[in-house]
Write a structure and sequence with these properties.
Blueprint (H helix, E strand, L loop, with lengths): L7 E18 L5 E17 L3 E12 L7 E8 L1 H23 L2 H21 L2 H16 L11 H49 L4 H14 L5 H6 L6 E9 L13 E10 L1 E10 L17 E10 L5 E11 L11 E14 L3 E11 L23 E11 L4 E10 L15 E12 L4 E9 L9
Antiparallel strand pairs: 1-2, 2-3, 3-4, 4-5, 5-6, 6-7, 7-8, 8-9, 9-10, 10-11, 11-12, 12-13, 13-14, 14-15
Helix pairs in contact: 1-4, 2-4, 3-4, 4-5
């Protein structure tokens, strides 16, 4: 374990081991005394004090003739840990700025001014001095100033001197009060600025909006923001960066829910960029190790667009690869597939999103029994290679109701890497609703589904 300032710092992890034993299996194959060793481990690292990584390891070993052994490793950038690290540094930066906004002598000056003001007010309001002031003023008012002998009267001179001294002290008190009030006002302005900075830092604004708000707040105070820009570097916008066994999750009609051994990357800061590439670790219609050589499958995908993935956006996606549609002794070849997709989402407030996607693929339309395949062609007029989907997600906070509606059309020959299926035309839809009752003690879930032949939870 290194120190926080070392090149690599270990931030914790876990190791899990499970053993599964089956004395007999008769469906869908027959075996006995089957044991499986499952090992999962994960550790979090911070490189150079700035880049948090998560390393995950998966392993399975079995004495079964059908289940194949595997050892998988994934190294991924941890965006959640990075945001926490950035938040701590941003908070430290704002605390450091407080030394620039606050004068260390302000509190001392305020305390001294209040103390002096308190002493003078007590002196000026002392009963004996107030009575003396009244007598002195009466003495001056009752003296006949036209008579010169009274000008040299000691009592008269003493009264005039005391009044003058009392007025001097009162004037001094007013000057101290004005100074104290102006100092309090200046301190209040500085505290308000610091409060605004902390409110921005601790708020839930999007990263770009937060950076703009901090830049403006600091510029108004004449503070250099170059260090702040370093805190908001481009790593803040990396949503996903993983190497090894990864599961991309791009869109309904392109690439989703399939393991690949390769790279998965997503970047989103107004501009959206994504890239996935690797060998597919998935075999259609064959969940067990049959002993035949596995036909190589691969995919690479690129996405570009504008807007936040969870907000309003438009994305263009291109994908290409080799896909094993069937896995039989007669036909286990991988087929070349490529296509384009256009996706748009409209976010209505915080709780409603409407997403639509249109895709066109180029995939062989006919697979012969001898394993030959037709040539893939990208023809926009071919409806058999088209697909589109529409999804609505809504949440109503007042009633705590959630509604999800979805429709998908897939042409006869459309193929992508979001699922594995035989060539077939499909019209499918679903409607789901969730509602809580009695202070969330009872939950009612209602769903209507038509033509759903895909299971997202298959390995």
């Amino acid at each position: 374990m290194g120190s926080p300032k070392s090149a690599i710092h270990f931030d914790g992890g876990f190791l899990s081991y499970q053993y599964s034993y089956r004395s007999a299996i008769d469906t869908p194959f027959r075996e006995s005394a089957i044991g499986q060793h499952l090992l999962t481990g994960s550790m979090n690292l911070t490189v150079a004090g700035s880049i948090p990584l998560t390393i995950t390891y998966f392993e399975r070993q079995s004495n079964s003739r059908y289940f194949r052994d595997y050892r998988d490793l994934r190294v991924e950038f941890n965006p959640g840990a990075f945001q926490q690290l950035r938040a701590r540094r941003l908070s430290d930066y704002v605390n450091h700025l407080s030394s620039q906004l606050k004068d260390p002598l302000d509190k001392t000056s305020l305390d001294y001014s209040n103390k002096q003001l308190h002493m003078l007010e007590n002196w000026l309001n002392e009963d004996s001095l107030v009575n003396r002031l009244v007598r002195s003023r009466m003495k001056v008012l009752n003296t006949d100033t036209s008579r010169q002998q009274h000008l040299s009267d000691s009592l008269y001179a003493e009264a005039v001197a005391f009044i003058a001294y009392y007025d001097t002290v009162q004037l001094k008190k007013e000057r101290i009060r004005l100074y104290r009030d102006s100092l309090q006002q200046a301190v209040a302005v500085k505290e308000k600025r610091l409060h605004l900075l902390r409110k921005i830092v601790e708020g839930n604004l999007p990263e770009e909006a937060k950076q703009e708000a901090l830049d403006k707040a600091l510029a108004d105070q004449g503070i250099e923001t170059s260090k702040l820009r370093k805190l908001f570097n481009r790593l803040n916008s990396i949503q996903t960066l993983a190497l090894g066994k990864v599961i991309p999750n791009h869109s309904e009609l392109t690439l989703r829910n399939i393991n690949i051994n390769g790279i998965n990357f997503e970047y989103n800061k107004k501009l959206y960029l994504a890239f996935s590439a690797g060998a597919i670790d998935y075999r259609a219609r064959d969940f067990f190790n049959s002993g035949r050589n596995r036909s190589p499958q691969f995919v690479y995908l690129g996405r570009i667009g504008y807007g936040a993935k969870q907000g309003s956006h438009i994305y263009l996606t291109a994908f290409k690869g080799s896909k094993q549609l069937l896995n039989t002794a007669a036909n286990g070849n991988s087929l070349d597939i490529y296509g384009l997709s256009f996706e748009g989402q409209l976010a209505i407030g915080k709780h409603h999103r409407l997403l639509a996607e249109l895709a066109q693929s180029a995939a062989p339309g006919l697979i012969a029994s001898n394993g030959s395949q037709g040539k893939a062609s990208f023809n926009l007029s071919d409806k058999g290679n088209k697909a589109y989907s529409v999804r609505l997600n809504s949440y109503f906070p007042r009633t705590k109701s959630r509604i999800e509606a979805f429709y998908r059309y897939r042409g006869l020959n459309f193929q992508s890497f979001s699922s594995y299926y035989n060539n077939a035309s499909l019209n499918g839809w679903q409607f789901k609703a969730d509602q809580y009752f009695w202070k969330r003690q009872l939950r009612l879930n209602l769903a209507f589904i038509r033509n759903d032949f895909e299971n997202d939870y298959l390995p």
